[in-house]
């Protein structure tokens, strides 16, 4: 992290602040419902077409999370957001909704929860940036999940009842 550009960021509503490299994302979480909202600024994926970019990022998340039972439920076509511009060009927007079985951290497959993932990709080609906004909503929380006692976001079940 030495030599990287950093930015001062307020935490906990401004109660404290810290410096982070610019490459880190913004994450908002509701621990009571086990939901999260993530904003990422990424280098533009030139090899990914505009129309399939949201689905590509959704599948990339599934690979990174070692997800099982991944499916794309819906995806939009390409929209040009004329009101949202970067330099001289409008943002290109695509969306996707998926569902996947994922575990938090290093909890293992036995603690995988069924999660609905809502993803929007705003492509700012003029500045070579993909803005990825992802929301996670638990649908089914296995009882082996470490946070299941404090979560009210999804139905809790014992994995023995699921055959898992």
TrEMBL record:
Pfam families: Mog1. SUPFAM superfamilies: Mog1p/PsbP-like. InterPro entries: Mog1 (IPR007681), Mog1/PsbP_a/b/a-sand (IPR016123). Keywords: Protein transport, Transport. GO terms for molecular function: guanyl-nucleotide exchange factor activity; small GTPase binding. GO terms for cellular component: nucleus. GO terms for biological process: protein import into nucleus. Belongs to the MOG1 family. This is Ran guanine nucleotide release factor. It comes from Musa balbisiana.
